[in-house]
From TrEMBL:
Domain ABC transmembrane type-1 positions: 29-236
Domain of life: Bacteria
Name of the featured protein: ABC transporter permease subunit
Residue intervals passing through the bilayer: 33-54, 61-87, 107-129, 170-191, 220-239
Entry keyword Transmembrane: yes
Family: Belongs to the binding-protein-dependent transport system permease family. CysTW subfamily.
SUPFAM superfamilies per record: MetI-like
Pfam family, one: BPD_transp_1
This protein's UniProt keywords: Cell membrane, Membrane, Transmembrane, Transmembrane helix, Transport
Record lineage: Bacteria, Bacillati, Bacillota, Bacilli, Bacillales
Localization per Swiss-Prot or TrEMBL: Cell membrane
Annotated source species: Sediminibacillus dalangtanensis
Protein topology in the membrane: Multi-pass membrane protein
Main location: membrane
Length: 252
């Protein structure tokens, strides 16, 4: 269908020409990446920091891990509604900040780019942390103890021992989370601004299919989104191959 015009049977690339020459369509590439790439990077740093801090036999580590991963059980729509309730002009965030004298008027953090950005980070941190918790514990702590015994600092031990062992798995989880968020829809519509700032691939594909009944263009948007996801996956995996890619626990 992506190589056909509505109601026609002849093969054509007109849908792709329309996509890459009409800003209404090709802007979705940059808007989607502008939303999800910065969010995915921040999610990785937050999730890595939390799971690195609670690894091993830290007291209360299980509770922190559970609270970090808990948003995954709620789903994106409930997270979106919670973000609206918390960050809306009369929500807890603005009310608290104004009562403390830190804001003179409510700060707009919903129904725009930042609303979707916050909701993505909450879910993304939960997803990445759920994968990193086990990976962190799979690395033998005796390796770090040996490095510290030989005089290495905490930073050198992390840089030369811990990070090379977990780097491959971290980049794999980062890539999976990134391509998953490229397909964001409910967050872009509910807590973002789907008419402009958060007009992502799936928002446009849904509009073409359900509002304009142009299934051919909807499929074209889906194909471009899939190619974008494959390109992003290829870039991250190319970076991943530049280091150790074996198991962190077996070194094979």
């Amino acid at each position: 269908m992506t190589f056909q015009e509505p109601g026609a049977t002849a093969l054509t690339i007109s849908n792709y020409v329309e996509f890459f020459t009409n800003a209404k369509y090709y802007d979705t590439i940059w808007r989607t990446l502008y939303l999800v790439v910065p969010a995915a990077i921040i999610e990785l740093f937050i999730a890595f920091g939390i799971t690195y801090f609670i690894r091993g036999k830290m007291r209360g580590g299980g509770l922190i891990a559970g609270l970090t991963i808990f948003p995954l059980t709620l789903g994106s729509i409930i997270i979106d509604m919670a973000v609206i309730a918390f960050f809306k002009p009369t929500g807890w965030f603005n009310t608290t900040m104004m009562n403390m004298g830190l804001l003179d008027e409510p700060f707009t953090l919903v129904y725009n780019y930042w609303g979707a950005f916050i909701a993505l980070i909450i879910l993304g941190v939960a997803f990445i942390a759920s994968n990193l918790v086990g990976m962190m514990d799979s690395i033998d702590p005796n390796l770090e103890k040996a490095a510290r015994t030989l005089g290495a600092s905490h930073w050198v031990t992390f840089k030369r021992v811990f990070w090379p062992l977990i780097r491959s798995n971290v980049l794999t989880v980062f890539a999976l989370n990134l391509i998953m968020q490229i397909g964001v829809y409910s967050t872009a519509v509910i807590v973002g601004n789907p008419a402009s700032e958060t007009r992502t691939f799936v928002v446009v594909a849904f509009e073409e299919a359900m509002r304009n009944f142009n299934y051919n263009m909807a499929n074209t948007v889906a194909i471009v989104m899939g190619i974008t996801q494959l390109l992003v996956l290829g870039i991250v995996f190319a970076i991943r191959k530049r280091g150790f890619v074996g198991s962190a626990s077996t070194f094979k």
